[in-house]
Design brief:
This protein has 19 helices and 13 strands. The chain is α/β, with parallel strands linked by helices. The chain has two domains: 8-166 and 369-385, Glycogen Phosphorylase B (Rossmann fold); 171-368, Glycogen Phosphorylase B (Rossmann fold). The strands form two sheets. Strands 3-2-1-4-5-6-7 form a seven-stranded parallel beta sheet, sandwiched between helices. Strands 10-9-8-11-12-13 form a six-stranded parallel beta sheet, with helices on both faces. The longest helix is centred in the middle third of the chain and has 21 residues, at 206-226.
Amino acid sequence: MTSKDGSSLLIVAAEASSALYGQRLLEIFKEQSEDIECFGIGSRAMEELGFQCLGRSEELAVVGLVEVLKHFGQIRETFNGILERCEKNPPRCALLLDYPDFNLRLAKKLKKMGIPVVYFISPQLWAWRTGRIKEIQKNIAKMLVLFPFEEGFYESHGVAVDFVGHPLLDELDDKYFDKNQIAQFRKKQNLNNESMVLGLMPGSRNSEISFHLDTQLKVAKNLSEQYPYLQIVLLLAPSLDDDLIESRIDELNAPVRIVKEDPLEMIAMADVLLCASGTATLMVGLLEKPMVIMYKMNRLTAYIAKKLVNKVKYFGLPNLILGEEALPERFQKEASVEELSSQIAKIIDDEPYRDTLKSKLKGLRPRLGSKGAMKRVYESLKRDYF
């Protein structure tokens, strides 16, 4: 995707979910025959569409203070590489997705270079670090937000904002709710369609795997002893290293099999899930699958997070959106093997409870706007900059 007239767009999509949305935007450019050169941080799938990668989302998706410090050299090199490219050939604008510590610093530099910045997938300022609103007021030309309540937040602070809705709605398909299709998904993985399936989702980042994998595998071992008929699958992002994960499965003698497919297809085949907090929980929620949400991190990072986050009661996205603990969520010490096993056992044993969780999850989709979010992102960029 190389522009003949010099029109270019910087895209920073440094996480798995952001890279999927970046991919969808590039697909729209292709459909519309747009002559725009796109470069920045993205995935291999984006690169296959002509995107010029200065950094890979598969390598830069780390979370937490300690984890970021470990990767600081690579992150700094990518940051500087983007600025050098922008100085030589300034883009019409920049589209920055999520990844706030990196992107808000980058936005400040881009603003000084006269490059307008559009920010898609807002930092959760309404939950923590509200002081960052001043950075956004100074450096961001427009916010494109996922949730209706974010629009009011930014309007009240004098920031130009459009509510575009959530791109995950575009990924939903009737096949993920169809019993016959789900049976086919299971057959492909040699899963018995008559027995319950537990899906483990430890996260898409290597740093998340290091904190969640062993706990989830030990939970699997506990539950397989309690429910011999239970089929347990470890649902992994394509970017993760199988060898490292398989070695942990072998060491713990965990009764699980690895599955790497389309994320929604993987979720659809499960009856109940144990899921690390993040965008994956929203995918699970939109497919109306009962789950237990967990999150662990470095103790220092967790301590800082607890001090900073004081405006919200929940950390799981479905619970945040629904405004209640519709699904059990457990953080740090509370996310113990025993507690997580107990919470999942309750979902397995208690059908009315399971149905109650599914019923609550039906309330998610209406709160996320309508389909076409990435088309609205495209239209906003086109209208203002191209």
